[in-house]
Amino acid sequence: MGYNDDWENLMNSVFGPGGRMRAGGVPAGKGKEEAKPAAKPARPATRTEAPDLNKALLEQQKTLDKLLKKQNEALRAQDVSTKQALEDSRQLLRDMEADGLLARGAADTPPEHLGSFEGLAAEVKQTVLGQDAYVDALVRAMRRPFVLGMEGQKARNVILLWGPSGTGRHFALEETARRMAARGLLQSDQMARMDLALYADPGAEKLFLQDLYAALNAPGEMVLFDHYESCCPAFLKTLADLAVKGAAPLASRYLVNREGILVDAGSALAAGAVSRITPRGKYLIFFSHKGREEMAGLLGAGFVAALGDVCSTQPFTQESLQALAARLLNELARRCARQLQLTLTAGEDVRDYVVSQHTGKLGAAALSGCCERIFRALSEYCLRQDSFQPGKAALDVRDGALRFSINGSEPAPLADLLPAAWDGGTEQVKRELDALVGLDEVKQYVFGLADNVQVQKRRAAAGLKTASLSMHMIFTGNPGTGKTTIARLVARYLKAIGALRGGQLVEVSRGDLVGRYTGHTAPLTNSVIESALGGVLFIDEAYSLYRGEQDSFGLEAIDTLVKGMEDHRDDLVVILAGYTREMQQFLSANSGLASRFPNQIEFPDYTADQLLDITVSLASARGYRLDDSCTFPLLGYYQRRQAADSRTAGNGRLARNTLEKAIYNQSRRLVAEPDAPLDLIQAGDLELDE
Which of 183, 265, 619, 649 yields a CA-CA distance of 20 to 30 A from 299? Predict the structure, then answer.
């Protein structure tokens, strides 16, 4: 019998039909005849009958209380069961999130937010700091097709996201997509990406179409395009057709193999051939550092008109960087408590130290990198303790350096907990530069680059704007004056001081940049530029690229080089080297060439004294020493050769060649003089051409 039946029977036992109370506690279920009153008028109850009635009511009240208690317990058990079922469901969803079957956050999304954009921008701003206007515009761009409607296979929306490096363009999109997927607004937060810089060569057409088809057919509802500025113009036309017309025709017919890859059909009559590509109803999202106007120059006004939304980030303000640093430090504190059992405390000085790590190139990533180094350092402290107990870790800043204290201990430099950071061999490069004979002007300029990098970091820490210094250079001078040697050291030095991420030196000449047939030069030059990104591209005898106005291949290489320098201004240093007079003529080949090389450094010819010093240095490096009797003959010889024609004499190469001849002659002499010192070069060993 259910609780409702118990309740009804109880009430019937107390109240009669019509709600009249039974005087003698008539049991429930008796007939109407038995419940009728006597024919005589009822008399008032006596004192003896009244206690019986009260006793009956008391008993019924006890029974009622028991039933109410039982019912409340059942309701509470049902509520606990419901809550447990809901938590079990959420845990199942979290497990599915961990397995990649659901977007992160889906399990904890409030029911009222499912299928809704309400509050989405505010939710994204919890993790994307300092870019409120950008987040609002981005959420509006993602919502637009839900308001305007979607047209079959056409692009859901075409969006341009642009702004300075390190301002969170990609991160904000990823957070927005993740939260949209958690709300059920997207089937998945997966994104297909294409780096359009990989398709600069017209010969990469089939690869481009295959990758584009794969991206449009990949899981997820977004296709991202980076570096459209470096893409072959013919391929940009295909992307423009996708955005403007909703489909891009293919020049030839393709088949789709079992792996979903486009394969050239080879015949227009092939059954099931693909003759066009469509956006498949996806968001097409382009990233750039440039805005709408620059995009129109490459993709056309029609493409720009087809853009549904243009969203731009702004450089971080000091306040937004401070807010971001504070949030990262809070996350660091939670991580330390969870993994290291350390309660972390830090003041505004630590927050400002984290902010000072911000640079134009790395952006917000520099702040998170700083917090990661702090965690690694504290982890190292815990690892060094045999029996470390949970405690308190306090951070502060003294003289520009982070310090830590555990459980009130004396503060110590945090950097001491980590392996000594490799400085890229800065001191070694300095020593090698200092060891070079002469070239004082060149050395001053190279060392000045480090001063500029340091000052820009200080400006960033103070919340001031930073200015990137153009480091493209032209080395002019005669052969053997140290241009290539200095270029190699400059590449290493720029890496060491943090001005370049790579530090490699790519040495090329005309033959590495200029193609052998039409359409070959630009891809060849672009591939060389790609190999040098993050380092230095050194072009020796650069003037050979320009052989007059009729040299169309050489002019194409120069134009491609200028464009590459512009596209990768913060990730590439180009050094041109050559004779002084010829280099001046070369700079006139392209109107934008000279302006991109503000640093023109002349390498003077070596004097006789300097050539003697070079000879002594080269000999020492090889384990030899020059007898004093060699000094005057060598000085006289070098003076005559340099005065006659320093351009053909070879400068440093003259010293090296002279030493090599002396070593050869010394070895022949030592055969005849077995007791003579093996490392000493005498005047008779010199072979000085008159």
Answer: 265
Residues in the chain: 690
Is beta strand 248-256 parallel, antiparallel or unpaired with respect to 262-264?
A: antiparallel
Beta-ladder partners of 288: 162
Per-residue 3-state assignment (H helix, E strand, C coil) for 504-567: CEEEECHHHHCCCCCCCHHHHHHHHHHHHCCCEEEECCHHHHCCCCCCHHHHHHHHHHHHHHHH
User: How far apart are the C-alpha atoms of 79 and 3, rounded to whole Å?
Assistant: 17
What is the token pair recorded at 391? 């405690």
Q: Could you report how far apart the first and last alpha carbons of the chain are, in Å?
A: 128
Distance between CA atoms of residues 414 and 380, nearest Å: 10
Q: Could you tell me the two tokens for 110?
A: 């409030």
Q: Environment class of residue 53 by beta-carbon count within 10 Å: exposed (0-12), middle (13-18) or buried (19+)?
A: middle
pTM of the model: 0.55
* CA-based nearest residue to 103, from 223, 219, 212, 217: 219
Q: In what order do the strands lie in the sheet with 401-406?
A: 342-346, 391-398, 401-406, 412-413
C-alpha dihedral, 299 to 300 to 305 to 308, nearest 10°: 0
Mean pLDDT of the chain: 80
Among 503, 555, 509, residue whose Cα is nearest residue 532 = 503
pLDDT digits (tens, 9 = 90+) for 470-500: 788 888 888 888 888 888 888 888 877 777 7
Among candidates 501, 527, 505, 499, which has minimal Cα distance to 514?
527
Beta bridge partners of 77: none
Closest to 603 (Cα-Cα) out of 430, 434, 443, 432:
443
Reading the block at residue 169, the tokens are 């363009």
H-helix or E-strand spanning residue 248: strand 248-256
Residue listed under structure tokens 């870019």? 131
Residue 288, C-beta contacts closer than 8 angstroms, at least 6 positions apart: 160, 161, 162, 228, 229, 294, 295
Instruction: Determine the pLDDT at residue 375.
Output: 93
Alpha-helix runs per DSSP H in 130-196: 132-148, 169-182
**Residue 439: Cβ within 10 Å count:** 22
Q: At what angle do helices 631-649 and 652-672 cross, to 10 degrees?
A: 140
How far is the C-alpha of 554 from the C-alpha of 566, rounded, in Å? Answer: 19
Q: Which residues, in sequence order, are CB contacts of 252 under 8 Å at separation 6+?
A: 264, 265
3-state secondary structure 581-648: HHHHHHHCCCCCCHHHCCEEEEECCCCHHHHHHHHHHHHHHCCCEECHHHHHHHHHHHHHHHHHHHHH
Q: For the segment 565-611, what is each residue's pLDDT rounded down to a tens digit?
A: 887 877 888 999 888 888 888 887 776 777 788 888 888 888 889 88
d(Cα 25, Cα 58) in Å, to the nearest integer?
11
258-273 pLDDT, tens digit per residue, is: 667 777 766 555 566 7
Q: 168: alpha, beta or left, given left = phi > 0 and alpha = psi -120 to 50?
A: left
Q: Is residue 281 packed enough to be buried (19+ CB in 10 Å), middle (13-18) or exposed (0-12)? A: middle
Picking from 601, 600, 539, the residue whose alpha carbon sits closest to that of residue 564 is 539
Name residue, tokens 């079992």: 258
For the beta sheet containing 248-256, the strands, ordered from the edge strand earlier in sequence to the opposite edge, are 262-264, 248-256, 274-277
Q: How far, in Å, CA of 644 to CA of 641, rounded?
A: 5
